[in-house]
Amino acid sequence: MSYSVGQVAGFAGVTVRTLHHYDEIGLLVPSERSHAGHRRYGDEDLDRLQQILFYRELGFPLDEVAALLDDPETDPRAHLRRQHELLTARIEKLQKMAAAVEHAMEARTMGINLTPEEKFEVFGDKDPEEHAEEAERRWGGTEAYAESQRRAARYSKDDWKRMQAEVASWGERYDTLMEAGEPATGERAMDMAEEHRQHISQWFYDCSYEIHRGLGEMYVSDERFKEFYDSMRPGLAEHLRDAITANAARHEA
To answer: What residues in the chain have per-residue pLDDT under 70?
Structure first.
């Protein structure tokens, strides 16, 4: 059984022009030709096209798709396993993105007076709601949390951008500090930890040294916070935790 290029285009939801291109570059060469020289595709051709379209949907360029499919060391089942893993990861990411959009649309309940578009513009690929949810779960009944909500409700888009710029500047300087081999218990690291505490006090709530120590532990134990700080520099979350602890001891002594 074989199929014309038009039939295959209809099956796969691609254009005839796309199939012609795949043939021209050797990615999908039809296994048969009619007496008139027209392309005819067999079942194995359709299987290969399915693999091509899977990889294309996952963002692989055509040359990499060709290399993957023509690798003699890889059997078709390995391709399916790989694609299943990649698609599962894509689904999880899309689900998180959908949840982030839903949370952004509930900005009023979060007390942040921004549109969803502005929130994504400000925070890029970070989901501020993910941390906000965790904060509410941990401290929702406290005065510190209530004060944080009251302040955040008054912030404009420019306020959030300024806050983000401060965080970015702090992260770059902490990265430089670690690059220089400064210990977490050193003066420079403790000063950076103090700046971190004061940033929280300025923008959200009065962050005591006791509260700050608890936050430091959370930055290491909670994977979401750890990922945020380690994205600035690997190991930064633990280094900051230790600097926070040393800074608190310095000021409480």
So the answer is: 74-76, 79-80, 83, 94, 96-153, 253
207-216 long-range CB contacts below 8 Å, 24 or more apart? Answer: 207/144, 209/247, 209/248, 209/251, 209/252, 210/248, 211/144, 212/244, 212/247, 212/248, 213/244, 213/245, 213/248, 215/244, 216/240, 216/241, 216/242, 216/244, 216/245
Beta carbons of 32 and 42 less than 8 angstroms apart: yes
pLDDT at 101: 55
* CA distances to 83, 88, 169, 192 from 80, in Å: 5, 12, 44, 49
Both tokens assigned to 139: 């401290």
What pLDDT is recorded for position 86?
74
Please report the beta strands in 10-159, taking only residues with DSSP state E, as ranges in sequence order. 32-33, 39-41
DSSP letters spanning 184-203: TTSHHHHHHHHHHHHHHHHH
pLDDT of residue 126: 45
Q: Which residues pair with 217 in a beta bridge?
A: none
The pLDDT, as a whole number, for residue 108 is: 42
Three-class SS of residue 7? helix
